[in-house]
Automatic annotation (TrEMBL):
Highest taxon listed in the record's lineage: Bacteria
Molecular function GO labels: dioxygenase activity
Pfam families membership: FabD_helical_ins
Key word Oxidoreductase present: yes
Native source species: Hyphomonas atlantica
Keywords attached to this entry: Dioxygenase, Oxidoreductase
Protein name: 2-nitropropane dioxygenase
Length: 505
């Protein structure tokens, strides 16, 4: 990587004397004051303890994107670039997850630790979460990113507790690391605190953890790394980054005061809206231990999305997103943020939810709405219901039984199938279903597209997670340097806070 301080400062005004002397920047301001400012490297942005704990070069996470969009290849390339990478294992079958983990292990150096997989709360699929945790434990997955949790589950606690032990000095060691992705302080507090006694007692009584592990889990936070998820693609509360980060920081200090836990043990990172050097620099300036990118990696060549879907992403602007019902929590009214430009998915999903909320069934709809629905589904409603029923009998027989007797419930399950298939069609690139693609996307994707327009990163064939990560981190270092100079009293022009992507070899 180019570490030239001169190049980082190539936009400084001419009447400011800037040069490097023995590796330290020496500047002279307009009033002839001499200033010495140490170098800033991308590796120094964020919390050094984070990189050390997870074996990374940069405090940068290539985030998990569910159902395999964050592929094993993406994780491998993230690790090779010096970042932390998470496999998008949420929603995949255990056999597929196992194959993905094996691929990751085969593609990285032995002993490399800066990778993990996604664990998603799955109330609609009883037993699935436990099965995935068992798989992670058996395969030595030491880092999981826990997402979509509103409250702690026994499986998250079990994963943490089974990795706890004491070293020779009596200190508690942690082998299993949970990254909690949260957008609310009340949820974050649960991960910042030790595990609840009730959950620990139940796990011990079921012989799922030992009494010794329960004792240790009662003394340390469930998670040491929490990702503040601001306005992002997929599941999101559309929170603004700065208020959210501040809220979680306050919650951390309050939890520390209440429990006696060292507040400095808990690292808060920031994701959502991280798409340009400005976003990265701002996150670190706020005090983020690390940054996490999501949407922008979907258009990268390592993504699990099809090329047609990636091309749509590459054309998006910051406003080309909308909210649509979530397939996994349709009845509860939970929404996900998706790409709006080039698809009809968001509009169709919202109408489906409106019909459900009105208490309708297919049989009680107007003829016009029935024709619309079957046109969207692409086949008769009864045929889709039979396919849905067959799946539900395997995954959740109680839900299937309810739907047999309740037409409104049948409509909900069929709608959930359509929403689910929208994401599947986008991954597979089904040509005649392009208008129904569900592509998780936040405004950050549009900001990234604007930043790379006219550069080598504009074509999607040049977008790799390595080029994206290095450009964001190098650019953030440049902006941080310019801000440091301005804070030191040096006249720095506004154009010093701009940078253009460059190709890293």
């Amino acid at each position: 990587m180019d570490r030239s301080v001169d190049q980082i400062l190539d936009c400084v005004r001419e009447n400011v004397d800037v040069h490097v002397q023995n590796g330290v920047l020496v500047a002279k301001s307009a009033d002839a004051r001499s200033l010495s400012l140490p170098a800033i490297y991308p590796e120094w942005l964020g919390d050094a303890a984070f990189a050390q704990a997870h074996g990374a070069r940069f405090n940068y996470v290539v985030g998990e994107m569910a159902r395999g969009i964050a592929t094993p290849r993406m994780v491998i390339e993230a690790v090779r670039a010096g970042c932390v990478g998470f496999y998008g294992s949420a929603g995949l079958k255990p056999d597929t997850i196992q194959a993905g983990i094996q691929e990751i292990k085969a593609g990285i150096a032995q002993g490399q630790t800066s990778w993990g997989a996604n664990l998603i709360h799955s109330p609609q699929q009883p037993g699935y979460e436990a099965e995935v945790v068992d798989l992670f434990l058996s395969m030595g997955v030491r880092r999981v990113s826990a997402s979509a949790y509103m409250r702690l589950s026994p499986e998250v606690v079990r994963y943490t507790a089974l990795g706890l032990s004491r070293d020779g000095q009596g200190s508690i060691r942690r082998a299993n690391h949970v990254f909690a992705k949260v957008s609310r302080a009340e949820v974050a507090r649960q991960f910042m605190q030790p595990a609840p006694e009730k959950i620990l007692r139940a796990l011990v009584s079921e012989n799922r953890i030992s009494p010794e592990q329960a004792e240790l889990a009662a003394q340390v936070p469930v998670a040491l790394d929490l990702t503040a998820e601001a306005d992002s693609g997929g599941h999101t509360d559309n929170r603004a980054a700065a208020p959210l980060f501040s809220s979680l920081s306050i919650a951390r200090d309050q939890v520390a005061a209440e429990t006696g836990i060292d507040a400095n043990m808990i690292r808060i990172g920031l994701g959502g809206g991280i798409a340009t050097p400005h976003g990265v620099a701002a996150a670190f300036q706020m005090g983020a231990a690390y940054v996490l990118t999501g949407s922008i990696n979907q258009a990268a060549i390592e993504s699990g999305l099809s090329e047609p879907a990636r091309q749509l992403l590459a054309k998006a602007g910051p406003a080309d997103v909308g909210m649509a019902p979530a397939a996994d929590m349709f009845e509860q009214g939970v929404e996900v943020q998706v790409l709006k430009r080039g698809t009809l998915f968001a509009m169709r999903g919202r109408k489906l939810h409106a019909l459900y909320k009105a208490g309708l069934s297919f049989e009680t709809m107007t003829q016009k709405d029935r024709a619309w629905l079957e046109d969207v589904l692409g086949e008769p409603f009864d045929d889709v219901w039979q396919k849905t029923r067959a799946f539900m009998l395997q995954s959740n027989p109680k839900e299937a039984a309810r739907a047999e007797a309740d037409g409104n419930k049948r409509l909900a399950l069929v709608a959930r199938r359509y929403l689910f298939m929208g994401a599947q069609w986008a991954r597979e690139g089904v040509a005649d279903k392009a208008s129904d693609y569900q592509i998780w996307c936040g405004p950050a994707q549009g900001a990234f597209n604007e930043w790379v327009a006219g550069t080598f990163l504009e074509p999607i064939e040049n977008r790799t997670v390595r080029q994206i990560a290095l450009n964001l981190m190098e650019g953030a270092a440049r902006l941080t340097r310019a801000g440091q100079m301005r804070a030191a009293g040096i006249a720095v022009p506004p154009t010093a806070f701009s940078c253009t992507p460059k190709r890293f070899l």
